[in-house]
Request: fold
Amino acid sequence: MDKQPKMIVGVDLGGTKIATGLLDASGRMLARSQKATAGLKSSEEVIQAIVDTITEVSGEYEIAGVGLASPGAVDTRRGIIRNGVNLPGWNGISLQAELEKRLQVPAKLINDANAAAWGEYVYGAGRGAQSMVYVTLSTGIGSGLVLDGKLYLGTSSFAGELGHTVVNPNGALCGCGQRGCWETYASGTAIARQASEAAAAAAEGMTQMTALAEAEGVPLSAKHVFQAAAMNDKLAQETLEQVIHYTGLGLMNIIHSFNPDCIVIGGGVSRAGAAFFEPLRGKTGELVMEPYRGTYAIKPAELKDDVGIIGAAALFVE
Ligand SMILES: [Zn+2]
Reply:
């Protein structure tokens, strides 16, 4: 008699919520649970909340493993979160051991960008690739490396902080302390900042970009820059040209470093679609050395908001 197939659980531990899903081996999400982290006062309460969401989605199913994604420095080999989520008493806790003890199933911890990379490789835009680099352009730039079919973690599991590779040593100050990191030019936050600077320096001080933001009553964001550029706003188009240039430089560094056949781009900026991807493909093709041309594809991410859950669960897919 066939045994019921085992399910896998993915947990996305964020700064504001714990989101947990039950997946089958094909990556289909069968159940989902979510808990806010506000009000949790100790690491014990946080761990209990994680366990509760897992118990809730698991139901009667047998679980093959629990993958958990967290922002920040996650030491995958030792199963601890070094720093990351802003939760009480959290740093240095052996979360993997705690989950395994309480749930009696194998558990793995992973950085959220690495989870997204692995999720896209197993179930998303990177399916079938040999080597894939995942880049998320959101408030910052996160990335993850799948090299020759394996998630590459590095000595301390901290590999893939490509957002903090420097593209301009005289550039803007980055949160990490360096100047001109890639993410100071190509993250969503950076696009908005460059647009605001351009608008402030313009003679009229007002452009279609600022008008769109004001009409919505929200701060200028990357979305408005793309909208205004589509309406032929010159300042928006110039801003995007610079963003595309620096994004292309970042991709050039990736291509020259890792020779991937696939680069998957996620995050809010990737939702701009062809208006972003077409000029980016053109610019990157100009920047890379000749032998690399035609060796890689640049694709938008396929997994959406649940990429952290799906990618963490996919750690248990062979
Ligand atoms: Zn930096």
Remarks:
- Residues 226 and 272 are 7 Å apart (CA to CA).
- Residues 128-300 form a domain with the Nucleotidyltransferase; domain 5 fold (CATH 3.30.420.40).
